[in-house]
Amino acid sequence: MLQFITNATGKEAIIAQVEAVLAGGCRWIQLRMKKASRNEIIETAKALKPICAEAEAILIIDDHVDIAKELELDGVHLGKTDMNVKEAREILGEKFIIGATANTLDDVMAYSPVDVDYIGLGPYKFTTTKENLSPIIELESYANIVKVAANSKREIPIVAIGGIEYDDIDRVMSSGVDGVAVSGALINAGNTQEATRQMIDKLNEILNIRLAERGLI
Predict the structure, then answer these.
(1) Nearest to residue 29, comparing CAs of 41, 40, 39, 15?
(2) Helix (H, G, I), strand (E, B) or coil at 146
(3) Per-residue b/e over 131-160, b at no fewer than 16 CB within 10 Å?
(4) pTM score, two decimals?
(5) pLDDT (tens digit per residue) in 131-170
(6) Can you tell me the distance from the alpha carbon of 117 to that of 99, in angstroms, rounded to the nearest whole number?
(7) Count of CB atoms within 10 A of residue 114's CB?
């Protein structure tokens, strides 16, 4: 799984980012506009919705449960200081995707598969695309969290996030996470479309090996 998180201040720049990663094969977009007005966020989401629909890509929005429901987006991602996931599920119902941020094992274990559809676990490394960054999670901690969560039969996909670059994918995926969420690694690439394609190819290669080892393919 590759999730792309937007990081720009204007609608047109975000549309360009999303079109480039969609062209590269990404099918999961998170619209994040932390410093924008509600109207700016709505207008950008409205513009992205048909673009993502045409590419059969998932479009979720950071934080704004009300906008996700109003515009009938695919879902929402909630940080630790955003709305409680249980409350969000009550508002959105079962058909919407709800993702949640986690920084520790306790965070992960606090989430129920009924309330969240995936967990964004991080940060893996320092990143300039997020303010008030939580402490870095070491690779061993990722592996331990994934193992404990699996043993508890909490079948919630865990996505690594935070400063992840192409060269980090082998290491971070070795922890057992189900995918990665990236922003700067694709935005700052010389060719965002090609960088997206390369990252997806690498993830697919790793996931296919994982499935083969389990005798699933």
Answers:
(1) 15
(2) helix
(3) eebeeebeeeebeebbeebeeeebebebbb
(4) 0.93
(5) 566 688 999 999 999 999 999 988 899 999 999 999 999 9
(6) 6
(7) 11
